[in-house]
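I am writing to request your help with a piece of structural work I have in hand. A protein sequence and the structure tokens that stand for its backbone fold form the material at issue. Please examine both parts with care and let me know of anything in them that strikes you as inconsistent. The record follows directly beneath this note.
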Amino acid sequence: MLKDPVLGSGSPGAVARLCSHQSTPEKHEKDWYVHPQAPGFLTCSWCYHNYVQDSPLADAFAKIRKRGICSFNVPRMTKCLWPDALQTGNLSRATAFMSAYSAIPTCKGVTGAVMSDHVNWFVPAEDEIPAFLSCESCYEGIIKGTSFGSHFIPSEEAQGPNDKWSCDMNLDFMCRTLLWRSRRNDWFGFVEDAKKRMAMEECKAQSGVANQGKWYCVRGESQDLRMCETCHADNFAHSRFESIFQEVEETPETQYSVVSCGWKSYFPLVQLTYSCFVAKRSPAELRASIVAIASKPRCGTSEGIVDGKWYNFPRKIGNFGICEACYVGFMSSMGAGACLSPKTTVLPCPAFCAFNVYFDRWSEFIDRYNEAMDIGIFSVYEDFARKWVSIRPCARQNAVAARAWYGWPDCPICQECYENFAADTSLAATLPLQNKYFDEEKSCCMYSPRQRERYTAACLSSNAEALLQATRERQAVWLQTIPIIKELKDRIDAELEAASVQRQISATHLCSDMMGSVWGSNSYVYGDGGYKSWDGVLSDQAWNSAMAMQNRAANPARIQEMVRLENLWAQFE
């Protein structure tokens, strides 16, 4: 349950709004609680507040501040070891688990783990679920605390140095069905569920696929927003939300159509699903939100949104907006809807939502959003947006036009590098260029560690001459390398693109020639290949043209020249 609504500003509360149990550490510092016998086992303030704080065992924990991952909120701790500790007043079993668990590599999920990650693997003892794997973290944190713990043993198969194994227990469906079936001591039910899930194809997201298998939609609503069987299982099967979906009943018109799953790749729906689980929303609330998102212009595409409705901060920021779908999925669902208001000014068309992956600094905005939702203070997100929304990412060695610059005429510094590195230095106020706009192309000279070391030395000596001299030499090498490298890469890309077009033309003509063979033709043959129609000759010509272009693109002399220039630039960059 989310602790409180998000506040517009103020100081963070003592308790996080949600548990941060996830596979990657949070990128902001926060308060954690640790036991002296297991200092590597972190308990977030949400878990401490909900499980530990009001118990006689609370004084055994100390508060620290750092980045990290919560380890407390795993079923074995919350449903087994901690209740036992409260009942007996003895923490020994819990602390033994905490100490051992903190030394186990975290689950790598679908990304997979290689041998060098030193992950121990567990499998069903009787091999009832072929190819099923659980990493040690999921075995210890989830499986071992259930009635199914004895059904698993360490894997006897050795992982090869080039093998990448992924943990099946990381799938939400596997975790839910294991907990659900284990409460009923229904091992064979879990085996069947696991086999069924492992036989499902990976979601193809927005890629159109032939209409086969099961598809789901919101009960009683349009079938336009479809969800594949895999996404339905991973997100909603064996959950309180399962009842709001129904299997699509195909009609003769849709039975053989090309369809796509609208779930996995659509971030507003992904976030909405997560929010409704952590906030303990009702099925009716989730259903209403899905219907609302489905009726809005789609976010997340490279084309942006045309003529959309937008939300902004009450004290509006120019060139910033959150689309209607993301307002529902990211803001309202997490209790932050009141922190935004409808935007009355019109954004350029097409416009990009701040939650669109094609929006500049998308990942950085997501990090600040997560921090704001965690601590419950929206100004963390707003202040970041207000500062960075108009600052373009550093183009590094690439020359860019129509931007503002800091630094010196011989050593321009982009806005990002100025704010991230130079703004608080002793030389900042003396820079000749202070956010000065130039139409002509320039490249940033302050993104590389080497240049930043020279700048730092200039600050210490209060003399920038050595920095400027080195930068002039660097720019001379830049002129001899980067423009030529770019020209060569552009030429290669153009040739590969042209080769791709020729291959498509070849395939089209070949298909026409083969169709002619199927429908019958005279005995006359065309070209050296003995084709049944002139399309076969055209296919041959297009294919030969494609191969010639591909060979030119892969010209060894050209590649060697690019490598030589890149190595030369690396010596000065």
About this structure: The chain has five domains: 109-199, 209-289, 294-388, 403-463, 476-570. The mean pLDDT is 88.
